[in-house]
Amino acid sequence: MSKDQNMNLLSKLYQICLSENAKNKIEKVILYVAIAGFFIHLLLIYLSKFGFITLLSESELFVNPISAIYTPFSFILIYEVYLLIYYLPKSFTTYITKQYEIITLVIIRKLFKDLSVIELSSDWFDIKGDLQFTYDILASIILFYLIYQFQKQGMRKSETKNSDKPKIERFILRKKIIAVVLVPLFFAMGIFTLFNWISSISLASNDFAGFEAINDLFFDEFFTVLILVDVVLLLISFFYTDKFHKLIRNSGFVVSTILIRLSFGVSGLISTVLIVLAVLFGLAIILVHNKYEENILPEKL
Question: How many CB atoms within 10 Å of residue 216?
């Protein structure tokens, strides 16, 4: 295929998967599916509660109606994954922000499940589940504020020289190629993860996967792929800029993503601390980066 044919193919695929029109359609579909999933989950809870089905009685997700909120939040997370890919070619900082929003929503989703089995007693800080709930609810507030600050810093635009515009356009083109590849990749990963989870359920013994495993399904592999994507973007950026603060910013975002990925390998307070540390590190990186942008000296003629 010629270069023009490749460009036309890329443009068509991008319009199909990542255009504004495609985003609006996917948003509407996800909303309908999330609402339907919520009511189906509620129905299964009450069918299990009144003894019409016994298969789900061992799962923590089918004990209390509050846990039904877990299902629509899962679909909201799917949409956030799509938005992450959508914003990748448009804004690198928005793309990183979406990573932070996704891991925060994972924590929020877990809170809804924890609320359904929380134990209210005077021994609150002696109960492991209640203690973890406390960590998560504090972490969600801290993350919400850190993401707000990160977004505010990311909105600050630096001036672009006319001579740099062709380089930026080529960089955006390569990001579009990566984004187009990520759409079917993450879709396939999601289907594969769901199939494996369903296949792992033993109907005879009610052997459902533990909740922590369910909560981390897909997203541990998801952030592994994001690390690889961030590294590729970092390497590609070397072709278009040799500015120290830009390279450190991009490298710092890779470290931040790695910290998030590491949080899936541990549990309890350590996992929560790693997530908060990841976002805090990303915020510190972009703050220093913006200070460089403010104080950079104009090149001598």
Answer: 21
Beta strand ranges found along 182-227 (DSSP E):
none
Q: DSSP string of 215-280?
A: HHTTHHHHHHHHHHHHHHHHHHHTTT---HHHHHHHHHHHHHHHHHHHHTTS-THHHHHHHHHHHH
**Where exactly are the structural domains of the chain?**
3-156+178-295
Q: Say how many Å lie between the first and final Cα of the chain, rounded.
A: 44
DSSP string, 127-151: SHHHHHHHHHHHHHHHHHHHHHHHH
d(CA 210, CA 125): 23
Contact 116, 41 (CB under 8 A): no
The C-alpha atoms of residue 37 and residue 34 are separated, in whole angstroms, by 5
241 Cβ neighbours under 8 A, 6+ residues apart: 167, 247
Q: How far is it, in rounded angstroms, from Cα 129 to Cα 114?
A: 8
Q: Which residues contact 244 (CB under 8 A, 6 or more apart)?
A: 292
- Classify each residue of 227-263 as buried b or exposed e, where b means 16 or more C-beta atoms within 10 Å of its C-beta: eebbeebbeebeebeeeebbeebbebbbebbbbbbbb
| Spatial contact of 65 and 71, defined as CB atoms under 8 Å apart | no
pLDDT tens column, 94-124: 999 999 999 999 999 888 877 766 766 666 6
Residue 207 pairs in a beta bridge with 202
| CB-based burial, 272-289: b 16+ in 10 Å, e otherwise | bebbbebbbebbebbeeb
How buried is residue 77: exposed, middle or buried, by Cβ count under 10 Å (0-12/13-18/19+)?
buried
Rounded mean pLDDT of the chain? Answer: 83
Q: Provide the token pair at 240.
A: 């278009």
- Is the pLDDT at 206 greater than 60? The verdict is no
